[in-house]
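Data card: per-record layout.
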Amino acid sequence: MLELTLEMRRTELREARDAVRRALGVDLIDKDHVGDVVVVVDELIAAARECEVTNPLQLTVQTYPQLTSVRLRCDRNVELRDKPFDIRELVIQRLVIAFGRRRRDDGSVDLWAEIPRRK
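The structure for this 119-residue chain is written out next.
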């Protein structure tokens, strides 16, 4: 399991991608799956920052036998759709079983995605 706090800075996305690759590279042989997880993490972080979330983000990546679960905790509501073309949503949909956002009792929001392992 990878737990990471992301501070808002220019190198944030690169640092997150590198951390996910390192963490999953040890457990997973399938480099395509690692790449899928990295793309999804990148899109979720980008969505949070585009919605002006400036507080640190809490990223959790957990591997299971059939999938990898990604959670990104944000201090406010985040829109995953990037209108007018919804490219982010289309990219994520192609890589995951399911994804979305979940409001928490404290007002924060979890963005989540479940990425299946390729067979």
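Known properties of this structure: The beta strands are 2-6, 57-63, 67-74, 98-103, 109-116. Residues 36 and 95 are 6 Å apart (CA to CA).

See the next section for split statistics.
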